[in-house]
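Hi support team,

I've been running sequence recovery on a batch of backbones for a student project. Most finish fine, but this one hangs at about 90% for roughly twenty minutes before it completes. I'm not sure whether the input is malformed or the queue is just slow. I've pasted the structure tokens below so you can try to reproduce it. Let me know if you need the job ID as well.

Thanks,
M.K.
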């Protein structure tokens, strides 16, 4: 591992299994966000697709259950993966997260399934 921090996409269930229930989606987002600090503490930069997609949807006057959502959520993750260095796949059924993993594999990016698999970044010495 070098001193360059990785941009790591956290992938897991967001809408899956919620039947559009806002509280269930919020709970899923909280589970995704719970992985953000350990990634940051390891010296990397966490990213969650919904952090980008939800404001995009909101600016279009839509939300995560709107018909426009599939045209924003999945493409957002795909576009983010063009910039990411790795994926952390959290447990749970999720078509979008499975697509993220497949995209990462196609692009030769590492896919981690546990926070402990993510290498600690070696900080660059400052003079």
């Amino acid at each position: 591992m070098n001193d360059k921090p990785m941009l790591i996409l956290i992938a897991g269930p967001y809408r899956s299994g919620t039947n559009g229930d806002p509280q269930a989606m919020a709970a899923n987002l909280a589970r995704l966000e719970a992985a953000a600090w350990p990634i940051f503490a390891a010296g990397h930069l966490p990213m969650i697709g919904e952090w980008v997609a939800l404001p995009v949807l909101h600016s279009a006057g839509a939300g995560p259950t709107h018909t426009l959502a599939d045209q924003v959520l999945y493409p957002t993750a795909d576009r983010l993966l063009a910039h990411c260095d790795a994926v952390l796949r959290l447990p749970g059924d999720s078509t979008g997260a499975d697509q993220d993993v497949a995209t990462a594999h196609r692009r030769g990016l590492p896919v981690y399934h546990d926070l402990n698999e993510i290498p600690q970044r070696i900080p660059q010495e400052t003079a």
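--
Follow-up from support: It reproduced on our side and the slowdown came from queue contention, not your input. The mean pLDDT is 93. No action needed from you.
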